[in-house]
Amino acid sequence: MHTSISYLNIMAYSFPRIASEASAHDIEMEVETFYDLCGRLERYWDIAKDNVDIPKKFTMSHIPIADDAAGNEYWINLITGEVVFIEVEYGIPERVHIVADSF
């Protein structure tokens, strides 16, 4: 079972943020699907670990939790709890946006 939300709009800061000022690259994002804990999350994490476009260091310290209609993904940092959004067209680290300081 997976949970779908009809376009939950979110604002985020581009990475890295400068102090507490909003970046000139603030973007509007949406969540289409949250990955469930009954296999889908683990399956997508395994796929990401095998993706040569995503650095191993990133996939070992982050786990994917959701995506949007375009295939962009939301990840949680397993150490800090920080939630980030990655635009798949640009990759890491060019388009990693901080969504929340913790989950």
The oligomeric state is single chain
Q: Helix count?
A: 2
Q: Whole-number average pLDDT?
A: 74
The low-confidence runs, each spanning 5 or more residues with pLDDT under 50, are 1-24
- Across the major sheet, the strand order is 1-2-3-4-5-6
Largest sheet: 6 strands, antiparallel, barrel
The Rg value, from CA coordinates, equals: 13 Å
Shape: globular
- Give the proportion of residues in helices: 10-25%
Looking at this protein, list some descriptive labels.
103 residues, alpha+beta, 2 helices, 17% helix, 39% strand, disordered N terminus
Describe this structure in words.
The protein has helices spanning 40-50, 56-61; strands spanning 3-14, 27-34, 62-67, 73-77, 83-86, 96-100. The protein has 103 residues and is α+β, with helices and mostly antiparallel strands. Strands 1-2-3-4-5-6 form a six-stranded antiparallel barrel. The longest helix has 11 residues, at 40-50.
Provide a brief overview of the structure.
It contains two helices and six strands. It has 103 residues and is α+β, with helices and mostly antiparallel strands.
Secondary structure: elements and pairs:
Layout: E1 3-14, E2 27-34, H1 40-50, H2 56-61, E3 62-67, E4 73-77, E5 83-86, E6 96-100
Antiparallel strand pairs: 1-2, 1-6, 2-3, 3-4, 4-5, 5-6
